[in-house]
Amino acid sequence: MNNPYLPYPVILEDVIIENKARDLKTFKLAFEKEEDRKAFSYMPGQFAEVSVLGMGESPFGIASSPTEQDYIMFTVKLTGSVTQELHSSSPGRKLGVRGPMGGSFPWDRLAGKNLVIASGGFAFTTLRSAITYMLHPDNRSKFGDITVVYGAR
């Protein structure tokens, strides 16, 4: 698909409840078509628009890594009408994904360096993409020490 305004059709494969309040969930999505999965080429740090058909769309940071090629993941906080509808969804539901959008982390400038990743709250899920990418056996030797600092209440 070459039109950035048309979403790729995806299927909700799994929903993972991330906290006791049940207002933070991770959604695992699979592309309906293999050619769409291959065309959706992203790097850690990018985001995409997730469409709840008939309701609207919202932008979310991509939580999966490009090294996890069979699916894409987004962690979503319950905040509005689109996220409410998404949070009430069950596996098997058809959704849409537009993107990827935005810039990725500057991977070429990070190569060979020791890295410190600092984050807090549920925004850390977007950094999951970067950490998983760096720790993948194909990429680990490209980076020095990796230190993760996380703050939560």
Account of the protein in words:
This protein is of the alpha+beta class. The chain has helices at 34-39, 81-87, 107-110, 124-135; strands at residues 8-17, 24-31, 47-52, 56-61, 72-77, 94-101, 115-120, 146-151. It folds into 2 domains: 8-101, Beta Barrel (Elongation Factor Tu (Ef-tu), domain 3), CATH 2.40.30; 107-151, no CATH class. A hairpin with a 6-residue loop joins β1 (8-17) and β2 (24-31). The model has no long low-confidence stretch (mean pLDDT 94).
Uncertain segments of ≥5 residues (pLDDT<50)?
A: none
Strand content: 35-45%
CATH superfamily of the largest domain: Translation factors
Mean pLDDT value: 94
The total of helices stands at: 4
Please tell me the CATH architecture of the largest domain by its name. Beta Barrel
Q: Give the helix proportion (percent range).
A: 10-25%
C-alpha Rg (nearest Å):
16 Å
Short précis:
This protein has helices at 34-39, 81-87, 107-110, 124-135, and strands at residues 8-17, 24-31, 47-52, 56-61, 72-77, 94-101, 115-120, 146-151. By secondary structure, the chain is α+β, with helices and mostly antiparallel strands.
